[in-house]
Amino acid sequence: MIAPSILNANNMNLGQDIKQAIENGIERFHIDIMDGHFVPNLSYGPELVKDFKVAYPLTEAEIHLMSNNLETTLPLFVKAGADLIELHLEATDKVEYWLDYLHESKIRAGIAINPDTPVQEIKPYMNKIDQLLIMTVKPGFGGQKFHSESPDKIKQAKELIAQSGKNIPIEVDGGIDNKTAPLSKNAGAEIFVSGSYIFKKGSIAHQIAELNEALR
Ligand code: DX5
Ligand code: ZN
């Protein structure tokens, strides 16, 4: 599955770009929320998610929550209608509490890990996550280069998940294009977040087709 990240789309064309991606088969968007504290950048607020779900109730809104102020930020995105929220393992010492909170709110829960966080650290939470996001760049900005050691990390995560007997899909995010997506897929990733490659290279239809082709 391809989950476009709208972070690097042109905000003046955002509605049109989202519509085009949906017309080209996209069923989930990856919405990057940055709090200016956990990462040195700011992005969107809950109103965007709310408007998105009103316009496209059948398309999933996956929230990549780059925030360490979860008491304030996380409930806002629950209320806004997120389908899935991914919180960073590095951002809180109450991971379990928030995973439970999400499930009690009937929202799927994911954990995101930074490039320098070992995969073993997800072990205690395997029973409580619906998805694992392996960051393939340092979070904060779009348009960065895929970290070349990522496929090894994906393989390790895949093994850990297999040992647990759970069905937890692995998602990759950062520098994903028609070269790095197949590398990640071969290592075990199933969900591919892609921002600049889809929204900054001209035709969205063409870029989605290229990425689909590379992942075939
Ligand atoms: C980075 C974000 C991304 C990223 C994707 O903090 O999590 O989702 O911007 O954009 P590209 O595909 O441009 O790396
Ligand atoms: Zn992201």
From TrEMBL:
Please give the Gene Ontology molecular function terms for this protein.
Answer: D-ribulose-phosphate 3-epimerase activity; metal ion binding
SUPFAM superfamilies, per the entry: Ribulose-phoshate binding barrel
The GO biological-process annotations, alphabetized, read as:
carbohydrate metabolic process; pentose-phosphate shunt
Q: What class of enzyme is it?
A: isomerase
Q: Which is an annotated Pfam family here?
A: Ribul_P_3_epim
PROSITE patterns tied to this protein: RIBUL_P_3_EPIMER_1, RIBUL_P_3_EPIMER_2
Q: Which cofactor does it need?
A: Fe(2+); Zn(2+); Mn(2+); Co(2+)
What keywords were assigned to this record? Isomerase, Metal-binding
Q: Which InterPro entries match?
A: Aldolase_TIM, Ribul_P_3_epim, Ribul_P_3_epim-like, RibuloseP-bd_barrel
User: What reaction gets catalysed by this protein?
Assistant: D-ribulose 5-phosphate = D-xylulose 5-phosphate
GO cellular component terms, alphabetically, are:
cytoplasm
The catalytic activity of this protein is classed by the Enzyme Commission as 5.1.3.1
PANTHER family found in the cross-reference section: RIBULOSE-5-PHOSPHATE-3-EPIMERASE (PTHR11749)
Q: Which family does it belong to?
A: Belongs to the ribulose-phosphate 3-epimerase family.
Official protein name in the record: Ribulose-phosphate 3-epimerase
